[in-house]
Write a structure and sequence with these properties.
Elements: H1 9-22, E1 34-42, E2 45-53, E3 62-68, H2 80-87, H3 90-96, E4 99-103, H4 118-132, E5 136-146, H5 148-159, E6 166-170, H6 176-179, E7 189-195, E8 206-207, E9 216-217, H7 220-230, E10 237-238, E11 252-258, E12 265-271, H8 299-310
Parallel strand pairs: 3-4, 3-5, 5-6, 6-7, 7-12
Antiparallel strand pairs: 1-2, 2-4, 8-9, 10-11, 11-12
């Protein structure tokens, strides 16, 4: 891997020093990580994100995952440890040396509709800053969105994600207003996960019932279609069923691998699953019933394994 030029050393050193000043998080899932705030200017507005690094200073640029949370993971003032307990990425990202970035939504809500583009620009600006600071490898930047965060991830992918190596869209289908306009810039590694009995994000399409999004969405298959098309995937799929580790959870996991694609596309279909990430603590979407939690897999581990394969 090529070491960044000397001009990038000073900003990178300053950022790492700032993380160290913020200190190690005492207890919780980030106990062995340094966290800090990253701020960028987007259309004249200061926007920020929390950066989590397990290894600092004298490190080459690393794989970075930008994580877009949904309402169930907590609002703008939710503690980072609370968000991570819901997603569970830290415990597997640490062993891989992966950098995690948790952007903050303006007014606690993402700009999902196609009329406002500040959040799309925000994610791009964050990636550019962390590449310039020598933190992130520009060839290994990934986006992961959950629930309404997944809706924003889809918008980013549809409107210009040429700087991303891949993405994960979890518990989210594409809004109907976005579906006809979605034009992915190029083939991209994609990981999707949906429950077929999700009461908040209908698997076959219809009205979403999230706390922060209640418009119509297309089906999980229609959501996948533009990305499969640009990757020139064939019509066939391999669809192994994972072992049923918990026969009492009322659900099974089917992993569909699209065949012949230019980039890997993996679809995790949770038959009977609800609006919950398999293997993670179940959380209501601000009081709404979310349905069955599958215990046959760990979502965070499956996602990080996918990122590792896509980065080869």
């Amino acid at each position: 891997m090529t070491v960044p030029p000397a001009r990038g050393f000073f900003p990178r050193f300053c950022l790492a020093a700032a993380l160290a000043v913020n200190g190690l998080v005492a207890g919780g899932p980030f106990a062995n990580a340094a966290t800090g705030r990253v701020t960028v200017d987007v259309e004249g507005v200061k926007r920020s994100a929390t950066l989590v690094e397990h290894s600092r200073l004298k490190r080459a640029p690393r794989t970075m995952v930008i994580v877009l949370r949904g309402a169930a993971a907590g609002g703008r003032r939710a503690g980072l440890s609370r968000i991570d307990r819901f997603l569970g990425l830290d415990e597997v990202a640490s062993s891989a040396g992966t950098v995690l970035v948790f952007p903050s939504a303006a007014e606690n809500q993402w700009a999902i509709d196609t009329g406002r583009g500040a959040d799309v620009a925000f994610i791009r600006a964050l990636a550019a800053k962390l590449v310039a600071d020598g933190v992130a490898d520009k060839r290994r930047i990934y986006l992961a969105g959950v629930s309404s965060g997944g809706l924003l991830a889809l918008r980013v992918l549809c409107e210009g994600a040429d700087y991303l190596a891949g993405a994960a869209v979890l518990l989210a289908n594409m809004p109907t207003t976005m579906a006809g306009k979605c034009k992915p810039a190029r083939p991209m590694a994609l990981f999707t996960l949906n429950g077929t009995a999700d009461p908040l994000m209908p698997y076959q399409g219809g009205a979403a019932k999230l706390a922060d999004f209640k418009d119509e969405v297309v089906s999980a298959e229609a959501t996948l279609a533009p990305f499969a098309a640009i990757a020139e995937c064939g019509k066939s799929r391999t669809s192994p069923e994972l072992p049923d580790k918990d026969p009492n959870d009322g659900s099974r996991v089917v992993v569909e691998h699209l065949v012949g694609c230019k980039t890997p596309l993996e679809v995790y279909r949770i038959d009977g699953g609800g609006h919950a990430l398999p293997g993670r603590p179940i959380r209501a979407d601000r009081g709404a019933i979310v349905g069955a939690l599958n215990n046959d897999m760990d979502t965070s581990r499956a996602l990080m394994d996918f990122i590792r394969r896509a980065s080869r």
